[in-house]
Amino acid sequence: MSKQTSGWLRPMVATFVTAVFFLPLYLVLVNVFKPGSEIVDSPVGLPIPPTLDSVKQVFTRSDHLFWYGLINSVEVTAVSITVLTVLSAMCGYFLARSQGLGARIMLVVMLAGLMIPPAVIIAPITEVLRSFGLMSTVMGLVLVNVGYYVPFGVFVFAGFVKTIPVELEQAAAIDGAGRMRTFWQVVFPLLRPASASVLIFLGVWIWNDFLNPLIILGPAEGTTVTVGIYRAMGEHQQDYGQVFALMFLATLPVLVFYLAFQKHFVKGLTAGASKG
Amino acid sequence: MSGGPSRTTRRFGRLSHFALFGLPSLALYACFVLVPIGIAAYYSLTNRNPFNPPTKWVGLRNYRTLADDPDFWKVLTNTIIITVAVTIAANAIGLAIAVLLDRRGWLYNALRGVFFTPVVLSGVVVSVIWQSILTDDGLLNTTLHKLGVDHPPGWLSDPDLALYTLCWILTWQMIGFCVVVYLAGLQGVPHELHEAATVDGAGPFERFRHITWPLLAPALTINTVMMLISTFKTYDQVQVITNGGPGDRTTSTIAFDVIQTGLVGNRSGYSSAVAVVMLVFVAAVSTVVLRLLQRREVNA
């Protein structure tokens, strides 16, 4: 193969492979903006002229599936990731800076939690929630999310804290700041890159979660957008227009969030990959 | 990450520090992870069924039942097939694509973005997309019909095929993760090594084999462990696309089975035993694989 062919061959192959990979996503994108009859006749064609019929149908459903789901998803995700960032930053800081045996055991116990499949514990979780009177509530789902994902946050923050010089905290201590004040005014602002990773990863995971909201929140008004897609799917096996539109709208917030913070996301993901 | 805190660290000595910084996280973790594991372990030793009390202590009977239960072995086999197939496929395809995209420029940046998109989609969304393509009257088979194929495969309705279709769907979603991690690894491979090897007469494949591949060891570790752990839990796609079928548990995974027998079938005692086995399995496999791969990193 000569130098010249390899010059255009790589971009051509790369573009072709990517296009094939992208086909399923393309299918959703174009069909969101087509009328139902056209989806059946020519599923792959471009939507000319584009129509917002399916989107309007999703917005105006009589059971308000989309709106209830959206409110719940925003509430659950926003509250969960805020609480998770604060609690896991404090806990990660504490565990990274303590040298006691208790703290080391606690770190190991928490890290073991990273591997636990949700299906293993969801049934007992419903019983714990029932005993607190929190079953079928947003509050209950938030607490479950915090408990389940806190090891991930602690893992990220504990690792990051070790890269911050202790001298900064000692200086603050000499100036008379207590532990709390040192943490909030000196350490926490320095943890911003770790906070970004935690917020983005957990934001995406919690927004996309299926099993926990399906079982904890229950039907109708308690659904999230992700579970809503599943429910809509059951009703309209053949009406892909509406299901695709619902999927598109349910995914839009995550995609915007992801695109806005893409750098942090990829950085967080690859932090360990190159260094090992 | 750099080493532990230095000798001069002001220690967290006091209990009040633990109460302030550590306790809130630990309490929630205990409530919603540790206690539920304890409950599952306890139920696994009883005949609990919420609709058929009283609950009695039965010792290891549930474990003996599941060892003799062909359905349990079927879902375990399915889960192992899915986990191994997806881990290998996502790594292999992800590495190939990473090598293909390992160039600078706007085009390559845009293409990388495309591969990563499915990683941020929910399992439900990915399931619905592929279901619309792969059902018997879905897009793929309609197209095959038009091309003159009279009996296109029943991707999701053929009991012999559905499990592998599911593997492909999971792989498609995971590829992007592997691509990103491998790309980061590839960027850490020093150019000088490649140049030196080229001067010594090494071809592209020899250079990949002896320079790039050993240096990708940490990326391989991360991708393998991540793929194993996340695929082993497969639930969403089974629930949404196949509901465990077609036929008898042809695509049921162990996570799906735990939910089906426990929350749908109300056999809490038995399903807890399955859950405990699953937990032990995932812990053992990930520990062993992590050890092996890390040893390989050191030797490489």
Automatic annotation (TrEMBL), chain B:
<keyword id="KW-1003">Cell membrane</keyword>
<keyword id="KW-0472">Membrane</keyword>
<feature type="transmembrane region" description="Helical">
    <location>
        <begin position="273"/>
        <end position="293"/>
    </location>
</feature>
<feature type="transmembrane region" description="Helical">
    <location>
        <begin position="161"/>
        <end position="184"/>
    </location>
</feature>
<keyword id="KW-0812">Transmembrane</keyword>
<feature type="domain" description="ABC transmembrane type-1">
    <location>
        <begin position="76"/>
        <end position="289"/>
    </location>
</feature>
<feature type="transmembrane region" description="Helical">
    <location>
        <begin position="113"/>
        <end position="133"/>
    </location>
</feature>
<feature type="transmembrane region" description="Helical">
    <location>
        <begin position="20"/>
        <end position="45"/>
    </location>
</feature>
<protein>
    <submittedName>
        <fullName>Sugar ABC transporter permease</fullName>
    </submittedName>
</protein>
<dbReference type="InterPro" id="IPR051393">
    <property type="entry name" value="ABC_transporter_permease"/>
</dbReference>
<dbReference type="Pfam" id="PF00528">
    <property type="entry name" value="BPD_transp_1"/>
</dbReference>
<comment type="similarity">
    <text>Belongs to the binding-protein-dependent transport system permease family.</text>
</comment>
<feature type="transmembrane region" description="Helical">
    <location>
        <begin position="80"/>
        <end position="101"/>
    </location>
</feature>
<feature type="transmembrane region" description="Helical">
    <location>
        <begin position="213"/>
        <end position="232"/>
    </location>
</feature>
<dbReference type="InterPro" id="IPR000515">
    <property type="entry name" value="MetI-like"/>
</dbReference>
<keyword id="KW-0813">Transport</keyword>
<keyword id="KW-1133">Transmembrane helix</keyword>
<dbReference type="InterPro" id="IPR035906">
    <property type="entry name" value="MetI-like_sf"/>
</dbReference>
